[in-house]
Amino acid sequence: MGISQQSRGTRLASFELTDFPQPNGREEEWRFTPIADLADLFAGDLKAEVVTQVQGPTGVGVSVETVGLDHPRIGAVPAPTDRLAAAAWAASESATLVTIGGTDTTQPTVVRVIGSQSERPTPSAAQLTIDAKPNSRGLVLLEHTGLARLNQSVEINLGDGADLTVVTVCDWTTGSVHAASHRVRLNKDAHLRHVVVMMGGSLVRITPHIELAGEGASLDALGINVTDSGQHHEAQLFVDHAARNCRSRATYKGALLAAGAHSVWIGDVLIRAAAEGTDTYEENRNLVLAKGAHADSVPNLEIETGQIEGAGHASATGRFDEEQLFYLESRGIPKELARSMVVHAFFAELIARIGQADIAAALTAAVDAKLDQGRAEPA
Q1: How far is CA 74 from the centre of its chain?
Q2: The pTM is what?
Q3: 166-222: per-residue pLDDT in tens?
Q4: d(CA 208, CA 6)
Q5: Looking at residue 22, what DSSP letter applies?
Q6: How far, in Å, CA of 360 to CA of 373, rounded?
Q7: Are 193 and 222 in contact (CB under 8 A)?
Q8: Is the CA virtual torsion 33, 34, 37, 39 positive or negative?
């Protein structure tokens, strides 16, 4: 049986778990995913074992509360489009609601999701909603640490004119499995900088679904994965241009350090018939540092109107440049340091685009630490 092809504009969207059958791995959205390793996260009776802590700046219009799923600001974004996302919603009994109402972009609101201390963590679910009020400005850092088997639902809603940066860092302990649905709505003239960083865990699958629903909305989607032996890091991005005169840029980069490392990037962009004046571009770059590492990269672009400013995509996967390594070694730089310098340069421009110096410095240090741990041989 072949893989079914379906427009992203017509894919089923529902909050009801029963609307989604159990996937078999042959569906387009699952064909690169080791779904057997996610089997216990597809159920709707997951527990709330992980701990969510929020540390935010005070006096700048940030509030945090725990609310029921019937709260009017919960579920005000696109509905889930796969069974994992629907299961996370169905299993959650409450949501952590972070409201951004001020204009401080210097101090981040830090959301820490902490796994259990158990060696065999219980499959769990968590619901987080970030609501940016009209004309607000904010910065949210979402950190994941510890050991967990987590199915997570993250909602991000930007009011008219809001400007928000959300940085997600997955630095789980080895053995962790993390599936996260990021469902986002941008209203009129809103701007979102959405950053995903995957370094830890054994299996991490992030699926950002970002709808540009208001005229003049703008998106910068950035992604980094540093993937070692035995790790599967996957990002499936869907950018839905549903309104006029919107702009989106997506740039994801990955480094695969050793044999057995696997990364997946799917980039779907839909320009609907009503989205005249769209300007969009997406790219994925992968650097393979060892034989036996593998990167899957699939950009997709659907255009339903010819009245656009521009649309394009690019994808490239290449092995480590031995000429660069030789050049640095010939000038007295040790091999391992030279390799780290090349990879550091590969990520540097992307990290700088996050726009917040402290977070950029912390990510640079984390990437360098991960590279230092790698035992990759040249490809």
Answers
A1: 20
A2: 0.93
A3: 999 999 999 999 999 999 999 999 999 999 999 999 999 999 999 999 999 999 999
A4: 18
A5: P
A6: 20
A7: yes
A8: positive
